[in-house]
């Protein structure tokens, strides 16, 4: 009986985590929509803005995929869309010509700076204790 209750409590906590993540994702999407972005777009811009890629300027697509929860094809489409909008640039990886590197453009860096406080405010509100 106690084991069943403990298991049920564990499942309830897990469902609570999932619900919080879904609500937070929706709130971020809503807040960023007026800037022409969704939460996934922002996550990629945020990673690129960190300048932790090789040489401090770009990331390999595989490095980005380690930090976002998208399939490889969805990430490729997202990067292509950011590139089309002038927010990011793709180029061949000099150390491995089969690889692709991605970096922010000046326009992408400016947009990231504009929406960063918006996204962080949503996180603070949604993830506040209490």
TrEMBL record:
Residues 1-130 form the HTH marR-type domain. GO terms for biological process: response to stress. GO terms for molecular function: DNA-binding transcription factor activity. This is MarR family transcriptional regulator. It comes from Streptomyces haneummycinicus.
